[in-house]
Structures
1.
Amino acid sequence: MRDDFSPKTKEELAKRVAYRCSNPQCRKPTVGAKENDNGSVSIGEAAHICAASPGGRRYDVNMSTEERTSIDNGIWLCRNCAAMIDRDEKYYSVKMLQTWKQLAEIEANQNIAIGRNYIEQIPLSNNDKIVVEKIIHTIENSNTSYMLKEHNYQDDFQRNLLKPIFNLKDYLNKPSSTISNQKLRSTVQKFIDSLDEFRHLISVKGGLSRHGNDSYEIDMEENQYIANNLCNDIWKNYESIVMVYRSFN
């Protein structure tokens, strides 16, 4: 038997985040006007952090029915993100979802208290600063900056020189690396997306070079051109991160 939320609890979860998805990488509005109608349409869901029934994701056998159906065990998400968090319970952990919920509620409160420009006014958290310093330290390394700014991917390359930025992407995807400041978070997400595209291209199109010496090459000119453009995007997104970061200091 499922321990479902009451209609009142669902409504409260939605209101506490201003009817926006609590996933910090989404934040999509979940309610709006129905097209060609006087009604409204909702794409939001009150998702359980710890599952409503045995066998569900993150189910906690030690929780009571009251705890399982309480607002503390709920998070408001759009339908896509609600489905996504149940695909990988190890990655989308209880701690991660609780962090999402907390950040979304803080953001909704700040929107009311400070107004539209609150993003420019709230300071960065200590964790935000640690994450950005990690990005700067990695990208400004001479080998990394060379591979992003100067190397032409029509030429062979040493794949091990790209390992630091790919490790950086893995670091940025960890729950502990979640950025709390919305303005900075949006900028970092663009950086992560460009890194992800580049990593995918290298893994799929980058093969061992015919010249040996543990070097790699991208064999098609079209893909070489894409690789060079992606490196430009990564660097531009990095510069945006630094600019936003400095604006808070």
Note: The chain is about 50% helix and 10% strand.
2.
Amino acid sequence: MLAEALSRHLPDQRERLYLSFALADAGRLEALLVTAGFRDRSVTREVREGSYDSFDAYWAPIEEGAGSLPQAYRALPESSRREVRREVQARLAPFESSGRLEMTVEMLIGTGQA
């Protein structure tokens, strides 16, 4: 959601903003492990649940600027940052319950032996 919102404000940086999602395809990750020469390879999909006390608690690390997406966010003018925050908050509204954000995150874990 953040990458999508940011790419509307920074279209020339779209590819870089989505870089952290480049390994979202299990087949592609497996192929990279093969190409790198790993044996006993495994790619598994993990789903984790998490919650935040509030949207503000979720947003705090983004405001602090750790990571490429938060850095891009912090480089925007104040008015654009407000727009991005409002957009992300609106998109996360369905995950809010009694003020808390309850979400799941899906990731791929790739392992192998060199």
Note: Strands lie at 39-52, 96-97, 100-113.
